[in-house]
Amino acid sequence: MCVNKIKYAIECGFDIDKDGQVYGIKGKPLNGINDKGYLYFGIRINGKTRKVAAHRLQAYKKFKDKMFEEGIMVRHMDDNPLNNSWDNIEIGNQSDNMMDMAKEVRLAKALHATSFARKYDKETVKAYYAEHKSYKKTMQHFNISSKGTLHFILKN
Predict the structure, then answer these.
(1) Where are the domains of the chain?
(2) pLDDT band at residue 113 using 50, 70 and 90 as cut-offs
(3) Digit-coded pLDDT (tens) for 79-89
C-alpha cells in the first residue's frame, strides 16, 4: 500500500500554523531538525517511522496537490530551511529554487560543481589509461581517489 505521508499526517491530526510551527496529534509543538537543517517530524506508517518535512506540510496546506506535480519543488523564499511560515513557502522548479539562494551561495555551488570537471585534463587521463589499461595505475598517476570519477572521465 502506497501512502502519501503528508496527507496521512494531516489525516492523523498533525498540523502546521501560519508561522511554520508544527503540532503533533495532541497539539504538542514538534521541533526536529534533520542533518540538512530542515525541520521535520516523524509519523508511523505500517509500523515504520517516516520523516515528514515541515516545509512540505506547509506547502501542501497552501498549494494542495499542485505541489506533487512533476518538476515542482518546495521553495523557501529567504533560503532559510528553518523558516516554514506561510509567506516564506512557495513552489516552483529547480531553477526557481536555485535563484532563491543568495548570489554568493549560487556562485560557490557552481564553482564547487565545476571544480570536479576542471580538476583533470580528460584527454590526458584517457591517453594514459589507453596506454596502461589499468584503473589502479591511472588513479595513482593522476591522484584520482574514486573509481567512479575515473569511470566518468573515461566514458564522458
Answers:
(1) 5-101, 119-155
(2) confident
(3) 899 999 999 99
**CATH architecture group of domain 5-101:** Alpha-Beta Complex (3.90)
Task: Give one DSSP letter per residue of the chain, joined into a string.
Answer: ----HHHHHHHHT-EE-TT--EE-TTS-EE-EE-TTS-EEEEEEETTEEEEEEHHHHHHHHHHGGGGGSTT-EEEETTS-TT---GGGEEEE-HHHHHHTS-HHHHHHHHHHHHHHHHSS-HHHHHHHHHHH--HHHHHHHHT---HHHHHHHHH-
Could you tell me the pTM of the whole model?
0.71
Instruction: Tell whether the model's pLDDT for residue 71 goes beyond 80.
Output: yes
Give whole-number Cα distances, 117 to 114, 125, 138, in Å: 5, 12, 17
